[in-house]
Design brief:
The chain is mainly α. It is built from 6 helices and no strands.
């Protein structure tokens, strides 16, 4: 099942401040748990984790934070276009949304976000 561009656009649409606050809470609560399950299915995991740090950075422009929080909120939802529990396919729609968001805002993802991502991924690898 392919996630079409209009669905991605709908997911990444601008949200109200209240919606963004809710998305940020959901993302902060579930991001690393979901990332740990999805890492082997998403070849650009470091970019996803850097996107997380960019999204929660208050110095990041609001429009960029909004796009990333929308994509990350979709990522942490267990039931979406292709439910995450469907082995091998469950994260393909999430990967498409994350890649679209990352591509749209990558200019705002700074080296310090990547440094935090590398550190987080290394710490996670040590736990396994």
């Amino acid at each position: 099942m392919e996630l079409q561009r209009e669905h991605i656009g709908e997911i990444l649409r601008p949200a109200s401040e209240a919606e963004r606050d809710g998305q940020e809470k959901r993302v902060r609560r579930s991001f690393f748990k979901t990332m740990k399950r999805a890492a082997r299915f998403i070849p650009f995991s470091q970019d996803v984790v850097a996107s997380y740090y960019c999204a929660i950075d208050r110095k990041t422009p609001a429009a960029t934070r909004g796009v990333l929080l929308a994509a990350l909120a979709y990522f942490v939802l267990p039931f979406d276009v292709i439910p995450d529990f469907v082995m091998g396919l469950g994260f393909t729609d999430d990967a498409a949304v994350l890649l679209a968001a990352f591509t749209a805002v990558q200019r705002d993802i700074r080296p310090e976000h990547y440094e935090k991502a590398r550190h987080a991924l290394n710490e996670d690898a040590k736990e396994d």
